[in-house]
UniProtKB/TrEMBL annotation:
<dbReference type="GO" id="GO:0004476">
    <property type="term" value="F:mannose-6-phosphate isomerase activity"/>
</dbReference>
<keyword id="KW-0862">Zinc</keyword>
<feature type="region of interest" description="Disordered">
    <location>
        <begin position="97"/>
        <end position="120"/>
    </location>
</feature>
<keyword id="KW-0479">Metal-binding</keyword>
<dbReference type="InterPro" id="IPR018050">
    <property type="entry name" value="Pmannose_isomerase-type1_CS"/>
</dbReference>
<dbReference type="InterPro" id="IPR011051">
    <property type="entry name" value="RmlC_Cupin_sf"/>
</dbReference>
<dbReference type="InterPro" id="IPR014710">
    <property type="entry name" value="RmlC-like_jellyroll"/>
</dbReference>
<dbReference type="InterPro" id="IPR001250">
    <property type="entry name" value="Man6P_Isoase-1"/>
</dbReference>
<dbReference type="InterPro" id="IPR016305">
    <property type="entry name" value="Mannose-6-P_Isomerase"/>
</dbReference>
<dbReference type="InterPro" id="IPR046457">
    <property type="entry name" value="PMI_typeI_cat"/>
</dbReference>
<keyword id="KW-0413">Isomerase</keyword>
<comment type="similarity">
    <text>Belongs to the mannose-6-phosphate isomerase type 1 family.</text>
</comment>
<feature type="domain" description="Phosphomannose isomerase type I catalytic">
    <location>
        <begin position="3"/>
        <end position="142"/>
    </location>
</feature>
<protein>
    <recommendedName>
        <fullName>mannose-6-phosphate isomerase</fullName>
        <ecNumber>5.3.1.8</ecNumber>
    </recommendedName>
</protein>
<dbReference type="Pfam" id="PF20511">
    <property type="entry name" value="PMI_typeI_cat"/>
</dbReference>
Length: 387
């Protein structure tokens, strides 16, 4: 079966008022539109257009035995449109999520409480692929020597000296753990302001983009310690079609742009700045992988003519891509969701069933329709379970 599904944008404050509307070819509503969820997550389940108008979280259990499909998807597919920076955040591993969820359940913390860290017991690795011409993100902690060079150029204000001292530990992970722990847990607004002011007046040199981001973050979140944490992170500018993979423990924040995002079906987020939402510094520090690393780019692998797959090597998901201007065919794993992002693509399953997708339109594809083919008149991403 190929069944159209749809959802409405979520109006988080950081959303763009234009990016999703422009993709879909409609007039903006005037409100921020941050994400459109295509999946069965109870936070915003997609609606199934098979005549029943059920939401996908109700549809899958109802047909699972008859259609031989799982009652729940292991992944969540999204359109994400960042008009302002998202929070600096980290996601737990599966083991950490199980432990954290059990702790908060035992403590009686309501699942919808603002101070709740673990909404479920699942991990939340994620991949984002740029759909806008550029997509700006912070992803992982920068090489320690380059970070020390950046901070060395910020002058000699007392707070800068303190940060420099924390960064001087012999072990890079220890240096970054101490620095971020101080910034989030001990540094006051005056100290953060001193570092931000130093960044604003520093000679940009090779770190011009990082220092410019510091100034713009300060405009949005004055004296927020996350502004300085961002100075320690890899600043990444994806071009259209490029992707990053964010596994458990990797500190990250999406800054600006439109992307297609796929993740394990979870809502577990530990935040560390650039947000008015709950921040639990101790829990965040317990989850972060403080080892510096290069930006976590994810290259697709060829999957036949006109098709490729972004596969991070986890069971929860992989993301197929059927390019425009080239008819392609993609082998599916389990229940898939196809999302049009450009042009007008007709996708056809093995049974001969077909549906035409315009940008922002999606369809649920059941396993017997593998392989799924596209006529090449448009561009389609296909969410499915991983290996």
């Amino acid at each position: 079966m190929l069944i159209p599904i749809s959802n409405t944008p979520r109006d988080y404050a950081w959303g763009s008022p234009t990016l999703i509307a422009d993709l879909e070819g409609r007039e903006p509503t005037g409100a921020p539109e941050a994400e459109v969820w295509f999946g069965d997550h109870p936070g915003s389940p997609a609606r199934v257009h098979d005549g029943s108008e059920r939401t996908l979280d109700a549809w899958l259990p109802a047909v699972s035995a008859e259609q031989g499909v799982p009652a729940k998807l292991p992944y969540l597919l999204k359109l994400l449109a960042a008009g302002a920076p998202l929070s600096i955040q980290v996601h737990p591993s599966k083991e950490q999520a199980v432990d954290g969820y059990a702790r908060e359940e035992s403590a009686g913390v309501p699942r919808d409480a603002g101070e709740r860290n673990y909404k479920d017991d699942n991990h939340k690795p994620e991949v984002i692929v740029a759909l806008s011409e550029t997509f700006t993100a912070l992803a992982g902690l920068r090489d320690i020597e380059r970070t020390r060079a950046l901070v060395a150029g910020l002058g000699d204000a007392p707070a800068v000296r303190t940060l420099r001292t924390h960064l001087s530990a012999d072990d890079p992970a220890d240096a970054l753990r101490a620095s971020i722990g101080w910034l989030l847990g001990e540094a006051d607004a005056a100290a953060i302001g001193e570092i931000v002011d130093a960044a604003a007046s520093a000679d940009p040199g090779e770190f011009a983009a990082e220092l410019a981001l510091t100034r713009s973050l300060h405009t949005a979140y004055p004296a927020d310690p996350g502004i300085v944490v961002a100075l320690l992170m890899n600043l990444v500018e994806l071009r259209r079609g490029e992707a990053i993979f964010v596994p458990a423990g990797v500190l990250h924040a999406y800054v600006a742009g439109l992307g297609v995002e796929i993740m394990a079906a979870s809502d577990n987020v530990l935040r560390g700045g650039l947000t008015p939402k709950h921040i639990d510094v101790d829990e965040l520090l317990a989850l972060v992988d403080f080892r510096p690393a290069e930006p976590p780019f994810l290259r697709p692998t060829a999957a036949g003519e006109g098709a490729e797959v972004f596969a991070p090597g986890i069971a929860d998901f992989s993301l197929g891509h059927l390019a425009a201007q080239a008819s392609g065919s993609l082998d599916l794993r389990g229940v898939a969701i196809a999302l049009g992002v450009a042009g007008e693509a007709t996708i056809t399953g093995a049974s001969g069933a077909c549906v035409t997708l315009r940008p922002g339109e999606a369809a649920l594809v059941t396993p017997e329709e593998s392989p799924l083919s596209s006529d090449g008149r448009g561009e389609v991403f296909v969410a499915m379970p991983g290996d």
